[in-house]
Amino acid sequence: MTRKVLHIGAGGHGARWCETFLPPNVADGTIEVVGLVDINAEVLERGRKQLGLKPEQCFSSAKEAFDSVAADFCTIVTPPALHESIVDLALPRGMHILSEKPIADTMEASVRIADKAKAAGCKMAVTMSVRFDQDKSTLRHVVSGDTLGRVNTVSCRHSSDYRKYDSWRRFRHEMAYPTLIEGAVHHLDIMADLAGAPCTSIFARSWKPEWAEYKGDTDVIALMEFANGVHGVYEGSAAQSTGLNDWHFEYFRVEAESGTAILDHREVEVFHRDPKRIYQRNRQGKGQQVSLLTGKKWNHSLLIEQFCHWLDGGPALATNVEDNLQSVAMLFAAIESARLGRPVKVQEFLQSFRKGI
Fold it and tell me: Where is the Gfo/Idh/MocA-like oxidoreductase C-terminal domain (predicted)?
């Protein structure tokens, strides 16, 4: 059935929702956008035209929109600090929620939101879109199969040349931990997915090289342990000299019992161990090239479709808010580790915010 959507936020990243992510699902009948909210009149009008809405379906006030529009779910694309206020408007009206990452701007608010959604009996999920890109989905498909065997380590490198002020939008240059908050939020989520278990411990070290025009730390290296014994290494930088593994062109490597899988610049390559040999050597570029999975939708558009399937009685979205708390806990535990200079036990860290619940 076609699900009715109230969309909150048409500026910034919200503009991409109006232009790119929502329309494919409107076109195939998955959703009908019945309302749009933004405080900026010019942005609101642009979104209205992109979505083909009537003026009376557009609002500058979120409360007015929720009071006026009947929808099955809302999509939240506002600054994270505002997420909880929108959630508090949606849940009393029995409206399900699909929100941009992260759940909220703090661990405390993230836990509150997850618990509120559960108490209200409403479904909520978070658009961890990078995990559902075509190349990352292909790598996950390879790793989850039988050919490579048990996973041993997961590695990720994300390096961008955003060292000059305002090259990564001004607000990120003013943040305390821009690479962790804006980059690792996705990459740690993918690493846990590839590891196949929740993270139990994370040790992060962060810093800022002299040439980085930021207030906060642009570089981070993190070591992780997962509940099934898998180990992880993350390397992130917003001030790398050449943008070697920029957004959408990240490097991931999964070492497993019987082989290695590498994703680099959207190409997936697999190496298989020859059990007849005592030892062997190899090099990147000489393995088995894997064709990317085919599909009509990826990233946000796919998650919107899967969320609607969940509402229709299908399987829960992999990024449902309760499971996504694990990713949020990894992120904020990494920040805590970088601040304290020692490892942080992620599950204990998460539970410390749920005491008394």
Answer: 143-346
What HEC string does 292-339 produce?
Answer: CCCCCCCHHHHHHHHHHHHHCCCCCCCCEHHHHHHHHHHHHHHHHHHH
Structure tokens at 347: 């599950």
Cβ partners under 8 Å of residue 169, min gap 6: none
**Averaged pLDDT score across all residues of the chain:** 97
pTM equals 0.95
Contact criterion met (CB below 8 Å) for 148 and 257: yes
Ordered DSSP codes for 32-79:
EEEEEE-S-HHHHHHHHHHHT--GGGEES-HHHHHHH---SEEEE-S-
Q: How far is CA 82 from CA 40, 161, 175, 299, in A?
A: 16, 30, 17, 23
203, β-bridge pairs: 223
pLDDT at position 300 is 98
> What pLDDT does residue 356 have?
47
Q: Length of the chain, please? A: 357
Average pLDDT over residues 204-225: 98
CA 215 to CA 173: how far, in whole Å? 6
- Contact at 8 Å (CB) between 83 and 127? no
pLDDT band at 355 (very low <50, low <70, confident <90, very high): confident
Q: Where are the alpha helices (DSSP H) in 78-199?
A: 83-90, 107-120, 134-144, 170-173, 178-179, 185-195
For the chain, list the domains and their CATH numbers.
Answer: 3-122 (3.40.50.720), 131-295+328-337 (3.30.360.10)
What's the pLDDT tens digit per position in 23-76? 999 999 999 999 999 999 999 999 999 999 999 999 999 999 999 999 999 999
Residue 120, pLDDT > 80, answer: yes
213-251 in b/e burial notation, b at 16+ Cβ within 10 A? ebebbbbbebebbbeeebbbebbbbbbbeeebbeeebbb
Q: Which of 11, 33, 34 is nearest to 22 (CA)?
A: 33
